[in-house]
Amino acid sequence: MTEEMNYGEDYKYIPVTSIMSGKGQEVRPDIYAFMVQVVNLCMVGEPNSSTGWTLIDAGMPKSADAIIKEAENRFGVNARPNGIVLTHGHFDHVGAIIELIEHWNVPVYAHELEIPYLTGVKSYPDADPTVEGGIVARMSPYFPNEPINLGDHVKPLTSDGSVPVLQDWNWIHTPGHSPGHVSFFRESDGALIAGDAFVTVKQESLFKVLVQNQEISGPPRYFTTDWKQAWHSVKKLKDLRPSVAITGHGLPMQDEALTENLTKLVNEFDEIAIPKHGRYVDGLEN
Ligand SMILES: [Zn+2]
Ligand SMILES: [Zn+2]
Question: Which of 16, 28, 182, 245 could form a disulfide with 192 if both were Cys (CB 3.0 to 4.6 A apart)?
């Protein structure tokens, strides 16, 4: 028998949005990035292809109808993905997932270290409002961090790097922002779906989020707990030499702009990404 699913008790609509909310961008013929309020999700697969399509990440709380509608706009009435793959389990990446699983009846995959946060076992650490950067950071204690429970609907990714529903892609472990954070990479064209390993907007700033001002940034500060790992993860992604990156927040970045900005982020990570003070940086040396 299938277990009942539930969101964390603190899940709720979060009234933060951007001018790009509800807009999408075809980054490659088979990669469509769609923004829900302030977070991106990706639909991977060409419309009308026989191999189907996959959803990567699942938006903000209360956004299921918008996601289903966008999927039907792109793939036709009754469009249904072959599965949902998660970069990590923060509320803004799984916000609509229960309604989506119920509507589509599809499997979900996540890194095994993220599974406890998706099966009601563990809460993420509290957001840290003391990191500098702006109003979104200060609002962050209001963000849900209690664990969602997807029961046996969520399955761990296999250790060989393959993704069951996404041929040609590999998952790469990019911890730091969360323990089981993964990014997805397609070697044939250098496409990278980076989740929150790094982002292209200063996510702590309400104004920059609102206007989606493009600016390379480390992972959102208020939720990042291991900055050494986070730095290492960004180096790993830069070394893949991606040609385009769709990040969890911010607009997609491509080609030279991406190469230059990622190099800068790796070289100046302590200046650009790591907060000067905060619950998860004090005591961090070397
Ligand atoms: Zn996150
Ligand atoms: Zn996020």
Answer: 245
